[in-house]
Amino acid sequence: MKRKLNENDVPEVAEASEHTETPNAPEPVTFASFGLEPRLLRGIRDQRWSTPTPVQARAIPLALEGKDILARSGTGTGKTAAYLLPILHNTIRRRETRETSALILVPTKELALQVTKLAQSLSTHCGQDVRVQNIAGKESDVVQRAKLADLPDIVVATPARASVNLNNGALSLKGLAHLVVDEGDLVMGYGFQEDIDNVAKNMSKGVQIFLMSATLNAELETLRGLFCRDPVLLNLDDVEKESQHVKQYIIKCAEDEKFLLIYAMFLLKLIKGKTIIFVGDVDRSYRVKLFLEQFGIKSCVLNSELPLTSRLHIVEEFNKNIYDILIASDENEILGLSEDRPSKKAKTSKAAKTDSGVSRGIDFINVSCVLNFDLPDTYKSYFHRIGRTARAGKSGTAISFIIPKDKFRRHKPTSFPGCANDEEVLTKIEKHQKEGQKVENYGFDLKKLEPFRYRFADALRAVTRIAIREARIKELRMELVKSQKLSRYFEEHPESLSHLRHDQNLNHPAKIQAHLKHVPDYLLPGGRKAEDVGFVNLQRPKGHRDVRKKGRKVVRNRAGKIDPLKTFNARGRGKK
To answer: Where is this region: Disordered (predicted)?
Structure first.
């Protein structure tokens, strides 16, 4: 505000010039405008977040007012920070009591660790004022009881772990002020109904509720009726329609042509940037990985058989650009579910299976393309998969391979049973497209890839069932060698470690052919042809000097004939 001196040398406000902003102009929304704790603002700066996302801009002020919130927003839109920041703010302000004030329920261990890391990062400048514990892991009850004995301010858990610790008295909800159910539709779909009911029974009234999800369905409505009194509904699908825009393409092809297409796309750099390839199962993921290795294309597999820390390490390497291609499957990727609940609970809903996996919950950074090598069983899983790209306002591409019914089961070595209904799933995908979005034909001319077929077939033959099995076993052996829990055992049994290391150094399960890495120019579609050097005379030119004749040593025998053993003349005769 400008001031000037009047006639009596008293400062007064100057009149607004035509360049001065009007007082009615809306101020831009910032994290500081929410009135958050200054130490949290420093943590936000460390995350390099410039402005709040739409879900954060609407949810944080309401949460600070104490309202219950039921928010629907797409993946990658900042839902986690939208509930963490208000909870951290209130936790810092509420320091007179030492008790657990916030419980965050998530469906998977990966998501639990992700939420815990973000909460610790945002509160890194708060010292001991905020204590966060993750009890979603598969530690023993003694270890988890010790974690909860210190009465952490924020507890992150799966519903099953929370229920177990409530029953044995390790977790107390007497002072609970905030309850979060993240990915609420998955929590209910995974068969945690009994655990959720147990949490609700042990809760006191007046607890602030956050229900966060990417979809609104019957499961989420059940949670709403169980916990919420009068929640504020935030349906931010329309607000973020532009930021979630993904270019969607399909390619109809034969079963073996899928491998030909990914070979051409990556080797000719038709796909640029980081890519997630979704396949049908774990075996399928290793088949694709070993196939790409034949051409020197590096990739990593997110294998559900590996320990939790190893899977998270793979995700971190992908996010750090160590790998540009990540191959993942949705089958058996309900990470940590089988360890928490009986198997019969995991099979309560077919939709829960198909809606699970890396398509939900895990955070991937700067993914430019999602490649559906095998189309999922449902259109919902398709939209969750392609939600890995075009996040935070960035553009992205989704390419899906479709197997027509007349081409299904025509090539048994590469056939996958889940592709039987590709055309029906595609019809549902097209039916549920948002306004302004559509699925387009990629328009790939497979005839131009004919020169590559002999190379692709050669590489595909090298990836046998035995090679796939050995690749999976080899990776498990490597994890055993690196395991910290087994280090004591290996110290006492060094022969077991030597056997594992010997097996680890065996030959590669699939024979890599070095010549396949290089693509001659004449194979490229529209590329350079071999240069025409004209007629090449196979005879020596007239002026050519024959070095062999000039100065050649000739040894003759007594009869005057050339000795072939001493002159290397095969004829054995020559001029005398």
So the answer is: 1-31
Domain-embedded: residue 22: no
Does one domain contain both 559 and 437? no
- CA nearest neighbour of 262 among 285, 234, 229, 231: 285
The tokens for 95 are 């320091």
Residues 256 and 460 sit within 8 Å (Cβ to Cβ): yes
**DSSP letters for 188-224:** HHTT-HHHHHHHHHHPPTT-EEEEEESS--HHHHHHH
Neighbours of 77 (CB within 10 A): 24
Structural domain boundaries enclosing 399? 247-459
Residue where a domain terminates, one of 420, 444, 459: 459
Mean pLDDT by 10 residues, the chain (576 residues): 52 45 56 92 91 90 91 78 94 81 89 91 90 87 89 92 91 91 74 84 88 69 72 66 70 91 86 91 90 88 78 82 88 40 42 44 79 90 83 80 90 87 92 85 82 79 86 79 72 74 56 63 56 47 52 68 64 50
The answer as to whether 450 is a domain residue is: yes
Distance, CA of 258 to CA of 243 (rounded, Å): 30
CATH number at residue 371: 3.40.50.300
What's the DSSP call for residue 293?
H
- For 501-504, which contacts have Cβ atoms below 8 Å and span 24 or more sequence positions? 503/474, 503/477, 504/474, 504/477, 504/478
Question: How far is 29 from 61, CA to CA, in rounded Å?
Answer: 11
* CA-atom Rg of the chain in angstroms: 33
φ/ψ (deg, to 5) at 178:
-135, 135
Pairing mode, strands 247-252 and 232-235: unpaired
175 lies in the same domain as 270: no
